[in-house]
Amino acid sequence: MGLLTAAAIAAGAGGAVVAAPLVLAGIGFTAGGIVAGSYAAGMMSAAAVANGGAVAAGTTVAVLQSAGVVGLSGTATAAVAGAGGTLGWLTAAAAALI
Description:
Order of helices and strands: HEEHHH
Number of domains: 1
Number of strands: 2
Strand content: under 5%
Distance between the termini: 17 Å
Largest sheet: 2 strands, antiparallel
């Protein structure tokens, strides 16, 4: 593995971990709850309609709201870092082909 690849993996992993809370807040999953009129509000509305008026525990909306309130767990942080690192590696591999 070259230096560029290692740097891309590290940047992807670190960038993803830093960006995840910002993205969650940006789409409406905040510490204060789901922001009215946001993408998250639309997701919550759809989930509530599908569940007869309530959002069930363990659904995507519930998990994302939990992450918006308390942050990512260690497992979720590792998963996000892994996904970001993979994207960094793919970027470096694509750049090497050019």
